[in-house]
Amino acid sequence: MSPSGRYVRRVMIASLSGVRGILNQDLSLEDVGRFAGNFCGEFDHGEILVARDTRGTGPAMCKTVICSALSKGLEVVDYGVASTPALFRESRVRGSPAIMVTASHNEPEFNGLKFVVRGKGITKSMFDVVAGPPKQTPNYAGKVRQAKRTSYVDDLVQRFGVRSCQGAKVALDLGGGAAALHAPELFAALGCRVMTVNGTPGVFSRRIDPVVDGLVTLRDLVERGRCDIGLGFDCDGDRLVIVDSAGRKRTGDYMLTLAVSELLKETKESKVVVSLDTTQAIDDVAARAGVRVFRTKVGEANVVSGMVEWGARLGGEGSSGGLIDGEFNYCRDSLLAAVVIVRALMRGGLKTYESVPVYQQERVALAIPKAKALRALRTLAAEYPDADTRDGVKIVLQKRSWVLVRPSGTEDAVRVSAEAPTSRGALEIAKEFAGRLAELSR
Question: Which residue of 297, 416, 420, 436 pairs with 391 in a disulfide if CB–CB is 3.0 to 4.6 A?
Answer without folding.
Answer: 297
